[in-house]
Amino acid sequence: MTIANINDGELGSSVRGKLNATKDLAEKCTQTYWFDANDAATSITPITHGAGSTTTFLTNDGAGPSTTSYNPDSKTALWNTSTNKFDFTSLKHGDTVELRIDIRIANAAAQEINLVIDLAEGTSGAYSLNVNHTYFKTASSGDQITAMFRIYMGDEDTRTGSARFRLTSIAATTIVVNGWFYQITDV
Questions:
Q1: Model-level pTM?
Q2: Residue 38 contacts by C-beta under 8 Å, 6 or more apart in sequence?
Q3: How far apart are CA 178 and CA 165, in angstroms?
Q4: pLDDT per residue as tens digits for the range 33-61
Q5: Residue 172 in contact with residue 108, Cβ under 8 Å?
Q6: Strand ranges (DSSP E) for the chain?
Q7: Which of 49, 87, 159, 166 could join 153 via S-S bond, C-beta 3.0 to 4.6 A?
Q8: What are φ and ψ of residue 24, in 5° steps?
Q9: What residues does 36 pair with on adjacent strands?
Q10: Could you report how far apart the first and last alpha carbons of the chain are, in Å?
């Protein structure tokens, strides 16, 4: 679409038409917005991961003091604090979501830890992605694990199924969820 220049002295509907054409073009561009959901509950009562468990799902109440967003068009937040799952149904095929997970752990022994995101839950095409693998040689507390990764809405199962984070490890640990940031690129 070509946008015509507004000439000196031009008035009325001619200028309005050119401005509306500019607005229409701008609305078709890629848009980015983000949310930073910080957790308050696990700093008081950490999540307990039992040794050998593969299903310790991470929670986030979104009530932490640093919870914020940049959401100028009032898009739907993807993190649902009631279900502790992401809901991507408001997105379109081709949209991307960049996520950063931020947790602290206290482990009683040497251990390997995997952070996983389960996607397309509740559909026939459910799958998991390992987003971080960490190995601790000794016991420690307050170790921070942060991972950043991107997913895209490439199929209907990913878009309509829920998603959530989980931790797997053969050793026991406690988990404090600092929160997760997620940025949506709307195409």
A1: 0.83
A2: 60, 62, 63, 64, 65, 66, 67, 178, 179
A3: 13
A4: 999 999 999 999 999 999 878 789 999 99
A5: yes
A6: 31-38, 47-49, 56-57, 68-70, 79-80, 85-87, 96-107, 111-121, 127-136, 140-152, 162-168, 173-186
A7: 159
A8: -60, -40
A9: 68, 181
A10: 18
